[in-house]
Amino acid sequence: MIRGILFDFDCTLSNRLESAYYMYRWCLHEIFPDMDVNSIDFEARVQRCMLWDEYGTINKRHVFNKIKEKWAPDLDVESWIPRWYENFHNYQELLPDAEPVLQELLQKYRLGIVSNGDGRLQSRKIDVLDLRKYFEVILISHDFGADKPERSIYDEAAHELHLPNEEIAFVGDTFDTDILGAYKAGMLPVWYNNEHRVVTMWNVLQAHDFNDLRKIFLK
Predict the structure, then answer these.
(1) What does this protein need as cofactor (predicted)?
(2) What is d(CA 188, CA 186) in angstroms, rounded to the nearest whole number?
């Protein structure tokens, strides 16, 4: 019986796609202040950055190097890396229906977050969205000392929830970290595929939005 649920953060609780879109709009407006932000040319640059960003899986230095190569030869790439991380938390948005479903889940389950990333940066994003009230456990890989899919971070989350691994579900959007790690740790993996962009032959429980999670866990 499932008694606890662990969530990834980016693209599972937070709407990272939308957050990144508005963050890149801000960056490009700062880099190209004379461009009309309502023009199709400006939007085309934003959309190109979104492709370079690869759903947040790639180092931001790559994106700013591409901006420099294509449009801004004098861009100081190294100064933009910290600016991204100092400001990204300001553009966080929850995924639709996340908050009401979390409120319902909290009545039945122990909840936690396990996120890869820098502790200070991830904590800022969590705090901007006011999520701590829902979660007993928040583990961030940089602070813990191991990244998903390392088993130790899953085991520690289970320990802090005071539940055995087999009584915990893990909801995440990235197969080779969230799903792989949860499976090998003996948890129930739920692949959160809100962008409908995955194809797999692996038999894994999938959710496309928070209403699907409601059906899975509150039926």
Answers:
(1) Mg(2+)
(2) 7
